[in-house]
Amino acid sequence: MKLILASHGPLASAILSSAEMIIGKIDGVVAFSLTKEMGPSDLEEQIIKEIEESHDEDIILGLDLLGGTPANVSVALLAKYPFLEVVTGINLPMIIEYGNQKMLGIKNITQLISMGVTGISNVKEKLKEEQDDEE
Q1: Torsion angle (degrees, nearest 10) of CA 13, 19, 25, 30
Q2: Mean pLDDT, residues 37-63
Q3: What is the pTM of this model?
């Protein structure tokens, strides 16, 4: 299983670095950053090279934003590589979950997305709920 992260600016690299700070090196992950100097074809070339060098048909593309350039490039790649899984809205809990799944030898896209969604919380509301439960 391989994870290719792509984002506007350094988000993909930074989120991978943060995840590895927490759980250690995560094998099978590469991050690409779309810069102002790049066009969509530059990013597409990077991703295609990674797909073709991996010799793996178990690849997830993790993207920052639906509708942005990395997502638009990925949609075009789905026609050429229909085995790709494409997930948008990457966040730290998702990357940590991927690392854990990789260590366990499993691939569960639904759980990956679930961890991303449940990783979003309104802390003030959670604290209030806990206080209400205690009373």
Answers
A1: -30
A2: 92
A3: 0.89
Sign of CA dihedral 108, 113, 114, 118: positive
CB atoms within 10 A of CB 121: 8
Termini Cα distance of the chain: 47
CB 81 within 8 A of CB 51: yes
* pLDDT score for 135: 73
In sequence order, the β-bridge partners of residue 60 are 3, 85
The one-letter amino acid code at 76 reads A
Average pLDDT, the chain: 93
- What does the pLDDT read at residue 65? 95
Using a pLDDT cut of 70, give the percent of the chain over it.
99
The amino acid occupying position 117 is V
Contact between 74 and 61 under an 8 Å Cβ cutoff? The reply is yes
Query: In angstroms, rounded to a whole number, what is the distance separating the alpha carbons of residues 124 and 22?
Result: 24
Retrieve residue 115's tokens. Answer: 């961890």
Round the CA-based radius of gyration of the chain to a whole number and report it.
Answer: 16
Q: Which residues contact 120 (CB under 8 A, 6 or more apart)?
A: 91
